[in-house]
Amino acid sequence: MTTRVRTLLTQIGSFILAGVLLYAALRGVDLSEIGTALKESDYTWLIPLIGIVLLSHWLRAWRWRILLEALPEETSEKPRRTISTGATFNSVMIGYMVNYAAPRLGEVARTANLATREKLQFSSVLGTVVVERILDMIVLLIALVSIPILFLDHLSGLNALFIAPLVERLGHISVLTLLGLTTCTGALVFVTYRHLVRRESALQRFWLNRIQPVMLSFRTGVFTLLRTRRRLALTVSTCAMWFCYLLMAYLPLEILGMVSRYDLSLLDAWGIMVMGSLGIVVPSPGGTGSYHYITRETLTLLFGVDPTPATTYAILTHGAQLILYVVTGFICLLVQGSSIRSLAPRKPSTNAGDEETSTDDSPTEPGPTPPSSRPNLLVTRPAK
Questions:
Q1: pTM above 0.85, yes or no
Q2: What does the alpha-carbon distance between residue 328 and residue 51 come to, in Å, rounded to a whole number?
Q3: Which of 61, 145, 220, 279 could cross-link with 290 by S-S, CB 3.0 to 4.6 Å?
C-alpha cells in the first residue's frame, strides 16, 4: 500500500468518524429550534469574541517565535535572520485552516510554510511545534485535574460522562488480551533492536542515512525549551493564551442568553472549555463531531442545560471558529504570496547538514511537484 493510499484512507476514516459523532450530537434535537435560537441571539458580543480569538493565536505565534529564536545557528558564516511574529502568525492560521480539510496535517503545513519561507530545517521547526503541544498538554492535564475539584457538586455527571463508559469498556478486555498485546510489543521492540543495532542490514543503513539525521534535527527543535532564556515570556504567553480560551468559551454563553437562563458563570465556562478541548484532540476534521458531542454532553450532564441549547452552543462556537480560521488562514496565505501546494514539506536530504526545505521561496505559485520529489509525510509527520 502506497503512502498516498494510506493517507487517503486515514482522511476518509477521519471524516467518517466526524459524521458518526456529529450524528450522535444532533440526535434527538429539533434543528428548527436551533435555527430559531441562533436568530434570536445577541450578537453584540461577536466583535469582542473575534478579537479575543485572533489575540489568542497571536499569543501562540509569539510563543512559537520565542522557541524558534532558541534554535542554534546552522552556520556561523550566515546567521539566521530574525523571525517576526507576523510570519509565525501567518503559519499558525494556515495550519488551522488545513486542519479542517486534513486532520493532523495542519501542524505539518504550518511547519513547512515557516521552514520554507525562513530557510530553516523542517525537522527542527517541527520540534518546536512539538514543544508547543507539550506545553498545551501540560496545561490541559492540570485543567483536567482541576475539574473534579472545582465541580464536586457535579460528580454524578462526571461519572456518567467519563468513569462509567471507561469501566464498561475495560470490562470487555480480558487478561489474555492484555498479555498478548504486551508480548507482541516486546517482541517487536526486540526485533527492531536486533535489526537496527546488532546487525549490518539495509534497515540499519536506512536508519543511519535517512532517519537518524532527521531525528537529530528534530531533537534540536525539542531542546529549544531548555535552550531559551525567555522562560518567563513562555509562561506568560501560555497563561494569557489559555485565559483567552476561557473567554472564548464564556462569550458564546452570553450570545445565546445561557448565562442568565442556566445561571452559568466564568468558572462553569472553564469546565466547558476543558471538556471541549478533549473533543478537539480526537482526529476528526477540526474536531467536527467530536467537539459537538462532548460539549453537548458536558452542558447537559454537568450543568443541566437542555439538549437543544447545548447543541446550539456547540454549533455556534465550532461554526464561528471554522469560518474565522478558514477565512483568516486563506488571507494569510494570500498576504505572504503562497499557494496550498507550497505547504507540503520536501523529502529530507540524506545528509544531515543539507537543507531540508529547499522549496522555492518565490511569491509566484509553484508548478506541480514531480512524483519523484513529492514528500513522504509519514517520515516528517509528528507522532500522535
A1: no
A2: 12
A3: 279
Report how many domains make up the chain. Answer: 1
C-alpha cell at 142: 492540570
What CA–CA distance (Å, rounded) separates 12 from 204?
33
Q: Print the domain residue range for 346.
A: 3-72+82-166+211-366
pLDDT digits (tens, 9 = 90+) for 241-297: 999 999 999 999 999 999 999 999 999 999 999 988 887 777 666 778 888 888 988
**Residue of 346, 377, 364, 325 whose CA lies nearest to 94:** 325
How far is residue 281's CA from residue 320's CA, in Å, rounded to a whole number?
19
Residue 339 in grid coordinates? 499557494
Region class of 357: left (phi > 0), else alpha (psi between -120 and 50), else beta: beta
Tell me whether residue 193 is in a domain. no
Q: How many CB atoms lie within 10 A of CB 269?
A: 21
Look at residue 14 and tell me if it is in a domain.
Answer: yes
286 in a structural domain: yes
pLDDT digits (tens, 9 = 90+) for 349-380: 434 344 443 434 333 333 333 333 333 333 33
In the three-class reduction of DSSP (H, G, I as helix; E, B as strand; rest coil), residue 161 is classed as helix
Q: H helices of the chain, where?
A: 3-26, 31-39, 46-69, 85-99, 106-118, 122-150, 155-158, 164-171, 175-193, 202-206, 212-222, 224-227, 231-255, 258-262, 266-281, 290-303, 307-335, 377-380
